[in-house]
Amino acid sequence: MRRDADVVVVGAGFTGLAAARALVDRGVSVIVLEARAEVGGRVRSFMTSDGVRRDAGGQFLCDDMPEVMALVRAARLEMVETRWRGAAKTVSTTASRRVPEHENTLFARMSSADPADPALAGLSIADWLDAQEATDEAKRQFLSMVHGLWCLPAEVIPFWYLVDSDRRNTAEISELQYFLKDSAAALADSMADDLGPSLSLATPVSSIRREADHVVVTTDDRQVTARHVLVAVPPVRAREIVQHPPLPAPLAHALGGWRSGAVIKILLRYPRRTWPPAVSSGLSWDDVSGLYAFDVSQDETHAGFVVFIGGPLALDWRARGEAFIVQTVRERMAAVLGPQAPEPLELILHDWTDDRWSGGGYSDVIVDPEAHDAEALLQAGVGRVTFASSELSPSFPTYIEGAIVAGRLAAARLADRLVADGTAHNDAMALPR
């Protein structure tokens, strides 16, 4: 039978874009279907009133991330180096002494743990933390890290998953070393440009039907037939796509073991940078867990801070309303930056919690303590359906780098399979955008 393409890629975040480009480079015809009206997935941009394009979602990269750095250089996009070299500062609301992270032995204990250790079976992060000999201050610091990066309550995340995902972040320097002057969305746009008419925007996929020698992918207004489909969206959103026939029970269970994080990102734009470098390399507060601020000034006259609210704190504050969040962030930043700091010109909030197409941020997280094989099952897929996302990356999961790695690995597996079958690009054509 005649097919529309060798592979349909569902999703044009960085995983889908990287996979599609890698497949095309191998001579495989692709059609990319993206639900949003723009590419990038959890990377999104907006314009501030001064005409500068800023990041609303994923933003940062560093020299230890080779794939994304190579793409940035190939696209000739300008990077801004942050004031990342200093130690992060904790704003204390008590008289207690803060423990520097490198002196907090809880982090070393986590790093030395084995995620396959039977003794960890069934333990949540909260369970493990309760059993540790450490000061209350050290435990609060560790918990704030969990809430700020994994963006879910410590009670629902298996400790083995924290260990496993953390060890895949191999950066020797700060992951916040650089951001792109024209936003990370500019890189997504550059990658999408190479796909031309094979990319369709505002085209959500509702169902996938698996046949013996092809798949049929259904959207609101068309059906696309291909040899294979790569579902390149986060697991929580992937499980919303109806599968015919239903997925095998182990695979359906693997998709069901994830939960999206809760995170709110806020940009405060200032007319100039008046604060010292000591506060630029990261701020957290010891009276709340999961609140973090970082200097994202492009230069002295394009100044700004980004504030992240993650995990239970994000859920608590969003329940109080946007006005409460804005006022609270304004007051906290003013107290830190001091009376010499000007008032922010703009404060722009983006709430990623329960995002329609991404689920949440920074990523989906395994919450099923028994789901040790969930990632392997998703990567293997079933029949002509496979899955890929940043969450499944062997390196830098949840980062743009991880999304690119995951997409390229999935593309390589599919291309090898097509070559082995001797079926690549024999009868494919591209659909118009």
Give me the secondary-structure topology.
Elements: E1 5-10, H1 14-25, E2 30-33, E3 45-47, E4 53-55, E5 60-61, H2 66-74, E6 79-81, E7 89-91, H3 105-112, H4 125-130, H5 136-149, H6 159-167, E8 178-180, H7 185-193, E9 199-200, E10 205-210, E11 215-219, E12 223-231, H8 235-238, E13 242-244, H9 249-256, E14 258-260, E15 263-270, E16 283-285, E17 291-295, E18 303-310, H10 312-320, H11 322-337, E19 346-351, E20 364-366, H12 374-380, E21 385-387, H13 400-421
Parallel strand pairs: 1-2, 1-12, 2-9, 7-16, 10-13, 12-21
Antiparallel strand pairs: 3-4, 5-8, 6-8, 10-11, 11-12, 14-20, 15-18, 15-19, 16-17, 17-18
Helix pairs in contact: 1-13, 2-13, 9-12
Quickly describe the structure.
The protein is built from 13 helices and 21 strands. The chain is an alpha/beta fold and 433 residues long. Residues 94-99 and 426-433 have low confidence and may be disordered.
Description:
By secondary structure, the chain is of the alpha/beta class. The protein has three domains: 5-41 and 185-259 and 364-421, 3-Layer(bba) Sandwich (FAD/NAD(P)-binding domain); 45-86 and 173-181 and 260-351, Polyamine Oxidase, Chain A, domain 2; 98-167, no CATH class. The chain contains 13 helices and 21 strands. The strands form five sheets. Strands 1, 2, 9, 10, 11, 12, 13 and 21 form an eight-stranded mixed beta sheet that branches. Strands 7-16-17-18-15-19 form a six-stranded mixed beta sheet. The longest helix has 22 residues, at 400-421. It is globular. The protein starts with a strand and ends in a 12-residue tail after the last helix. Mean pLDDT is 93; it is low at 94-99 and 426-433.
